[in-house]
Design goal:
The structure holds 2 protein chains of 2 kinds. Chain A is mainly alpha-helical. Helix content of chain A is 59%, strand content 5%. Chain A has one domain: Ferritin (Up-down Bundle). Chain A contains 12 helices and 4 strands; from the N terminus they run H-H-H-H-H-H-H-H-H-E-E-E-E-H-H-H. The longest helix of chain A has 29 residues. Chain A is globular. By secondary structure, chain B is an all-alpha fold. Chain B has a single domain, classed as Up-down Bundle (Ferritin). The longest helix of chain B is centred in the N-terminal third of the chain and has 29 residues. The radius of gyration of chain B is 18 Å and the shape is globular. The two termini of chain B are 28 Å apart. The chains are: A mainly alpha, B mainly alpha. The interface between A and B is large, with 54 and 52 residues.
Chain lengths: 340, 259
């Protein structure tokens, strides 16, 4: 589901590299060629790509958790099947992205351990709660919609294995988005109670969706290594504006209201007022909107969000519960052959 | 739809519900692992199995609903606990224990492939056609669980101990899969569910014991007692009602609404 736009790749560009190799590498990038796993690459590029792919992989398997909780409560056979398949896809994306990361030099077990011990991060939006079925609809519509927007640009990147994985993931995400759109549309065409369920969930997820693309751009975003090396091709703010331009009119069409909200520490809305900035700026052709609460963003990313502890605890439980299984099937040397 | 004798309608619907309910709850219980499996690749595989079971259930509900006018969702979500016809083994939670999850599938999958084979010979053609298709998929499930059982049984001392314990625990209730639905003998006689329960039981036991033996495992499977009343006649474990409460939490908010 999740792109890695807010990973904040900090590439140490000062590390000395062979100038000739570096020039050749930059020329390849500038010519639009793909870098492959066994090509020469600057150490900082390898580190940055690993960080990006690993963060993305972590986000997929943590992202499976909030929706996974609702498989057993999905309200029809069709939705139950679709949600199981959807969460399964996310786990599959995690698997593909861990494979990309493994090729960059880190074992899967090391990555899973770093995730559950908090050494590495995952996408911030999964630290918010999904207390109703409405949240499941909004996650699939808004968050998957944001992910597609981000990942389409990542598929234009420069690292071959990651680019090919993005293309494949994007095809599946398109289905998730359609399913989310259908769920939101169904709720908004339903009873008063269903409409309220959708509006309340929209209020919870609008802020995290805007934050999805990461913090506001630094003034020199286009010159920094992630963009110079085509690890990223579009800045956070550019992506955010594309998202707003696509989703504000869609939400209004569906009858949803866009609010500026305050939340308690559990991530539940305590007050809301209409976002009075919402309007199409005819001069620029873009929709205006109120920025999300960036203090909240940094508080949550530092580990103090509503669900950080819960998500990591469940991943840790899964890791620990599965240890004996992995030992049994992955350490073939201790195994007895099947009896005759 | 082919004509069914009036007096066989209810037993026939119950036969379909028994198969559908087993699959719905097996899939439901297995889907609890989605995102939490012990190995990513297996997490993905296990979710596919869960989806197969739930999709099979859905197709069987459609068939049953075509006879009595209820939708598949009404049958899946809208009945009281006493109206379900599943066996005890799909009701018990696995407590997030992979050995229990696998042991459950071992007993259920081997049973299911035999049941589907019988159903594929039913004189009720829509059922026979459907069962043939489902049996082919179920065969892949059998292969998957057989492989896992053998690998855990011959893996490490810990995996052997865990899968052996899980097999023993579930072996006590597994034979209840064979409890007949009300008036099943009449369904057999009419060719709606051809075959013989005792022969099927022997075939099931032999298949399960073969796999267990290959994995250095064993189980004591008692002869089943058709008189003992259980899930096939609406007498359920304490686990069914809370599972239904969870499954129907959203559905019951607005049972008549589209979701």
């Amino acid at each position: 589901m999740s792109g890695s736009a807010n990973v904040g790749v900090h590439v140490d560009h000062e590390q000395p590299e062979d100038p000739a190799l570096l020039a050749e590498f930059q020329a390849k990038i500038d010519a639009g060629q793909l870098i492959e796993a066994d090509d020469w690459m600057p150490a900082a590029y390898r580190k940055g790509m690993l960080m990006m792919a690993e963060h993305h992989a972590n986000s997929e398997i943590i992202g499976a958790l909030p929706e996974g909780e609702w498989i057993t409560r999905a309200p029809s056979l069709r939705r139950k099947l679709a949600l199981t398949a959807k969460v399964q896809d996310e786990v599959g994306h995690g698997q593909m992205l861990y494979r990309v990361s493994q090729d960059l030099g880190k074992t899967r077990d090391a990555m899973l351990r770093d995730l559950i011990t908090g050494k590495t991060k995952y996408h911030n939006c999964f630290n918010y709660p999904a207390p109703t079925w409405g949240d499941i609809a909004m996650i699939q519509w808004l968050i998957d919609g944001a992910a597609i927007m981000n990942q389409k640009t990542l598929a234009d990147g420069g690292y071959g294995p990651y680019v090919r994985t993005m293309r494949r993931i994007n095809m599946e995400e398109a289905f998730h988005f359609k399913s989310g759109e259908d769920m939101v549309l169904t709720l908004m065409s339903g009873t008063e109670r269903q409409k309220q369920l959708a509006q309340d969930a929209f209020d919870r997820w609008w802020g995290p969706s805007l934050m999805f693309f990461g913090p506001p751009d630094k003034p020199n975003a286009h010159q920094l290594p992630p963009m110079r090396w085509r690890m990223k091709t579009v800045t956070n703010d550019e992506l955010r504006q594309r998202f707003v331009d696509r989703f504000v009119p869609a939400a209004l069409d569906l009858g949803l209201k866009i609010h500026v909200v305050e939340k308690d520490e559990r991530g539940y809305v305590t007050s809301r007022r209409p976002d009075e900035k919402i309007a199409l700026n005819k001069a620029t052709g873009h929709w205006e909107f109120t920025q999300p609460d960036w203090d909240e963003f940094f508080r949550v990313i530092r580990g103090n969000g509503p669900c950080n502890a819960k998500r990591l605890a469940l991943r840790r439980l899964s890791y620990e519960q599965g240890r004996w299984v992995r030992q049994a099937v992955l350490s073939g040397s201790t195994a007895l052959p099947p009896a005759a | 739809m082919p004509e069914l004798p009036e007096h066989l309608k209810k037993p026939f619907i119950n036969l379909l519900l028994a198969a559908a309910d087993d699959k719905l709850f097996l899939g439901h219980r297995n889907s609890e692992w989605t995102g939490l499996g012990p190995i990513l690749e297996e997490d993905i595989a296990f979710s596919a199995l869960a989806q197969d079971e739930m999709a099979h259930a859905s197709a069987l509900y459609e068939l049953a609903g075509a006879i009595d006018g209820r939708s598949a969702d009404q049958l899946a979500f809208g009945r009281a606990p006493g109206e379900y016809r599943c066996a005890a083994i799909v009701e018990v939670p696995d407590e997030f224990d992979w050995a229990t999850a696998m042991a459950r599938r071992l007993f259920c999958n081997h049973f299911d492939v035999l049941r589907l084979t019988r159903l594929s010979m039913s004189v009720y053609k829509p059922l026979a056609d459907l069962a043939r298709r489902l049996a082919a998929e179920q065969q892949a499930h059998v292969q998957h669980v057989d492989d896992w059982t053998m690998r855990l049984g011959s893996g490490t001392p810990e995996s052997h101990r865990r899968i052996q314990q899980a097999i023993e625990a579930l072996a006590r209730i597994a034979p209840q899969l064979f409890e007949p639905v009300e008036r099943q003998d009449q369904l057999v006689a009419a060719g709606l569910y051809p075959g013989d329960d005792l022969e099927m039981y022997d075939a099931w036991r032999a298949a399960v014991e073969h796999v267990l033996g290959r994995g250095h495992l064993s189980a004591r499977l008692d002869d089943f007692n058709p008189e003992e009343r259980g899930g096939r006649r609406g007498v359920h474990t304490v686990h069914l009602a809370p599972m239904l409460d969870e499954m129907c939490e959203v559905y019951r908010l607005e049972p008549d609404a589209a979701w």
